Amino acid sequence: MRRVRTNQPVILIFKGTNIETAKRILDFCYGLSYGVAGSVEALGDRVFAVLPAGIELTQGDIDKLVADGDLEA
Q1: pLDDT tens by residue, 27-59
Q2: How many alpha carbons fall within 13 Å on the CB side of residue 22?
Q3: Would residue 73 count as lying in a domain?
Q4: Stated pTM of the model
């Protein structure tokens, strides 16, 4: 998760991913975000954002996820 350490948000889309695998990845991401004083936010059904400290998603970021079909409005 080099991107999180360099202050870039990471979007995780678990649609079609085995639930146990998704849980393990999320557990790792929660630990990583804790280590960099960031956060993990649920954006929708099986869609999460790993955010470094002080970084927030813009409405434009959310709109792009909706337009790409990764997130339901």
Answers
A1: 999 999 999 999 999 999 999 999 999 999 999
A2: 14
A3: no
A4: 0.88
